[in-house]
Structures are given as structure tokens and as C-alpha cells.
Amino acid sequence: MKRTTNPQLDEILGREFSCLDHGFVRLIDYMGSDESIVQAARVSYGKGTKKVRVDRSLIRYLLRHQHTTPFEMVEFKFHCKLPIFVARQWIRHRTASVNEYSLRYSEAHNQFYIPEPEVIRKQSKTNRQGRSSETVPPELQEKVLAILKRHIQQLWKDYQELEQMEIARELARINLPVSLYTEWYWKIDLHNLLHFLKLRLDPSAQHEIRVYAQAIAEIVKIAVPLTWEAFEDYVLHARSFSRPEMELIRNALAQLPSPPNWEEIALSKEFSKREIKEFIKKINNERR
Ligand SMILES: Cc1cc2nc3c(=O)[nH]c(=O)nc-3n(C[C@H](O)[C@H](O)[C@H](O)COP(=O)(O)OP(=O)(O)OC[C@H]3O[C@@H](n4cnc5c(N)ncnc54)[C@H](O)[C@@H]3O)c2cc1C
């Protein structure tokens, strides 16, 4: 039995996808493909896949109905270089394996994240956790950048002085700011990676971690194109409705002079027959 490989993915293995001013994401290794998901779902060995069209609809069915375990059969190992404040958000995703560069053993590098002027924004008035969508004037951008840079070189000099005094690295590092870059190896399966991407590609996620999520998304698209397509349709750009919201929709539909012909409408939108049936059941509040 041959190991699953993806020539397009092999081509980008080890290539740095640059992120922010000094960061990157690169794929170090992978296991599996869209076919592995299909194969696991069919619990078969060897040639478990059928025609691409059939595989595509199975993957779409699995993702749509949250049959998630087949997606755990695909794994990725990334090497990432990222500012510590991004790493703090990222590490909250507990379903991955991580090995981080240790400043107890190794010397820090003189690399700190300084934002691009256009991402410097004021605090959002509507979202307590985010930035305003409006840019700030260039004079203010310059002022902010000067403040952000002001102490970094002094802190770096202090660090080097402590190093020269042969003070233990685990102590010498403690004043370094969270804008300092760190590195890690991050291994995760596709199911948990899609969960990470759903949360961190969202506009509500902080810009800096979103940049990394976007780089990873580029790699995932190449690795599992059918799964990515389904993910975009059923998760990333999908929304769920609460019971009261569903009632609102049904009430509004009931007030139309005649019920919509969903089959006709949906057919023109490239729905599969099964999806149309599922959609009508959802609208009618019937169990599948
Ligand atoms: C926009 C945004 C804002 C955020 N703001 C904050 C904040 O202000 N403060 C803060 O502390 N965090 C914040 N977070 C982090 C957030 O609360 C989650 O910790 C993070 O997104 C990881 O999500 P997760 O736990 O689903 O992922 P993972 O840790 O990868 O877990 C995946 C899934 O596995 C299951 N799981 C994993 N571990 C456990 C467990 N121990 N018990 C039960 N189920 C488990 C859960 O179903 C979970 O959804 C924010 C995240 C985002 C995206």
C-alpha cells in the first residue's frame, strides 16, 4: 500500500509563508489528504476512494453533519515564527502538540514586532476587544510607532548586558516584551485545525493572529481542496439560527401569498438533491 502524497504540497514543504514583519509559517510535514478522509469514512483499506464527484459529496456530507472523526485522520506539522502576544492567543487552542523555542536554554533574537502604520487604529467604540475600522492620521501613526519602538532597544541592551554578566537566561529574559518573536513546531489534525481557522479567520479575531490563520489557510487549501471547499460552504461562511430566529423566518415565509418553490430556487444555486431535501426539512422544522 502506498503512502498518500500530494505533489503540490510536497512542492511547498519547508517554504516560508511570511507573516507580519519577521514571522512566518512553513509546513514541515503532513499526513493524509481528502482521499484519507473518504477512506476513513468508508473504513476500508487500499483503494477506498471512488470518483472525485462521489468523494466530494461524501466529504461535504461529513462536514455538513459534523461527522468529524474522518477529518482527524489528516495531520499537519508547522514551523511558526510569531510574536509572543500572538503565541499567547494561539496556545489557547489546546488540541495541538507544541514545542517552543526555549529562552531558558537559548539566546533570544533581536526581533520585535512593529505594526505596519495602516493597522494602527483607535479602540473600537462598538467592539471592546477590537480596533476601529477607521485609519488614524499619519502624524498619529508616527507617534504611536515612536512610542512602540522607544524602549525596545533599551530592553534589548539590558538583556545583552545580563547575558554578558552570565546571569541565567531564564532570568535575563524576564523583561523582554511580548512583541518579541518566538518560534514553535505546531502539530494538529485537520478537524482541530479547521476549528482554529474558523475562530482565527473571523474578523473578530485580532489582526495579527488572523495573518497567520490566512497563511495556514493557503496551505490547507492545497492540502485538502475538497474539504476546504466544504469548510467554506458549511462552516466558514455559514451561520446558524436560534429557535426564535427560525420562528421569525418561518412566520415571515408563512405570510407570503404562496410558499416559495425551494426546489426550483435551490437547483439554480448548485445545491445537490440531498442538500435541497435537507434544506426544506430545516425550513419546515422536520428532523432529518
Ligand atoms: C475572538 C476571540 C476572542 C477571545 N477572547 C478571549 C478572552 O478575552 N479571554 C480568554 O481567556 N480567552 C479568549 N479567547 C480564547 C477562547 O476562549 C478559546 O480558549 C480559544 O479560542 C480556543 O478555543 P477552543 O477551546 O474551542 O479550542 P481548543 O482548545 O483547540 O479545543 C477544541 C475543542 O475541544 C474541546 N475541549 C478542549 N479542551 C477541553 C476541556 N478542557 N474541556 C472541555 N472541552 C474541551 C472543546 O469542545 C473545544 O471547543 C478568545 C478567542 C477568540 C477567537
End-to-end C-alpha gap: 38 Å
Which percent range describes the beta-strand content? 5-15%
Order of helices and strands: HEEHHEHEEEHHHEHHHHHH
Strand order of the largest sheet: 1-2-3-7-4
Low-confidence stretches: none
How many extended strands? 7
- As a whole number of angstroms, the C-alpha radius of gyration is 24 Å
Q: Which sheet architecture does the biggest sheet show?
A: 5 strands, antiparallel
Quick description:
The chain is 46% helix and 15% strand. The protein has helices at 7-12, 34-41, 52-64, 84-90, 138-150, 152-164, 169-172, 190-200, 207-223, 225-236, 243-254, 262-267, 273-283; strands spanning 17-19, 23-31, 75-83, 96-100, 121-123, 131-135, 181-189.
